[in-house]
Amino acid sequence: MTATGTAERLDLGVVLQTDPPAWRVVDLARRAELHGFSHVWTFDSHLLWQEPYVIHSQILSATHRVTVGPMVTNPATRDVTVTASTFATLNDMFGNRTVCGIGRGDSAVRVTNGKPVTLAELRTAVTTIRGLAGGQAVEHHGSTLHLPWAPDSRTPVWVAAYGPRALALAGEVGDGFILQLADPDIVAWSIDAVRRAAERVGRDPAEVSICVAAPAYVTDEASSGTGGGGPGNVGRRTLAHAYDQCRWFGGMVGNHVAEIVARYGAGDSTGTDGDGGPSIPRALTDFVAGRVDYDYNEHGRAGNTHTAFVSDEILDRFCLIGPPARHVERLLELRALGVDQFALYLQHDANDETLQAYGEQVRPAVQEAGRVRG
């Protein structure tokens, strides 16, 4: 990060669902590496999809360079000592190529009628996983624990957050911060909150990696028409179709935002409270006004029936949708805000085409501008 807060480079990651067949997930990860992506992430919801860590081992075996981890796991359904041991084992097998994205618990917890952990519990989980998976001794439930067989293991822990207190936690103890939407105004507000929190505890804000994750769908240049790219793609790469394929993401984000609004109240246009501290920016709360109940059985799926309140305008703000030039423009904007990595969700019907477009058009164009690691 430069003195002005601008990231010196922008890495690219891909976020995959562990839907069967698992070989398809591994193949997409392998293709992502070939297209220059630095990270491969997967969902972690053990009832909705297949077990991610088993698939992670296969991804690491089939690739040579990418870093692999969950976006995101949680300390409610995953015992933190088991999670740390899993990462340390993968590191021993494949080198230190793992990362742990973690949050309070969402779909994995909700489908069992459970509750997310508290922020205090999340804070403990971050330090415990990082310590154990980093070859250190940690205090856990009154005992001193360590993994004697993993002295050289290292796994950074990145915290997913939306609300003010969670953003503060990410800045205080996270190796990285994950924001699951790509609206530039909200990105700027969130990064500022994370950096302020890091400074308050004496950390260098540049130590906290910033990752923005959102769906990316590359359409044709003339995307308002019927589409192109051959008979099989007619209508598939139009803008309208891309919006429909990514509308699920607005529902997922809306579910998180509704919980935050219930806790903190709707924000104002500035994103600060009366004392100058972080509040909830109105740009993040207005769009949930028409939200209905959310069904986690449709979580993260195109065609989700609980997303009618998500407008095309919101999708333009939260996602990267359109021809390659539009993606390049947004990526450069995110990089200027201090984003270190953009991780694109591929939960739609054009994952092969999007990966190819990023590898052959989007990434080279951003790289040419000197923004992406070569």
UniProtKB/TrEMBL annotation:
<keyword id="KW-0560">Oxidoreductase</keyword>
<dbReference type="InterPro" id="IPR011251">
    <property type="entry name" value="Luciferase-like_dom"/>
</dbReference>
<dbReference type="InterPro" id="IPR050564">
    <property type="entry name" value="F420-G6PD/mer"/>
</dbReference>
<dbReference type="Pfam" id="PF00296">
    <property type="entry name" value="Bac_luciferase"/>
</dbReference>
<protein>
    <submittedName>
        <fullName>TIGR03842 family LLM class F420-dependent oxidoreductase</fullName>
    </submittedName>
</protein>
<feature type="domain" description="Luciferase-like">
    <location>
        <begin position="21"/>
        <end position="222"/>
    </location>
</feature>
<dbReference type="InterPro" id="IPR022315">
    <property type="entry name" value="F420_OxRdatse_CPS4043_pred"/>
</dbReference>
<dbReference type="InterPro" id="IPR036661">
    <property type="entry name" value="Luciferase-like_sf"/>
</dbReference>
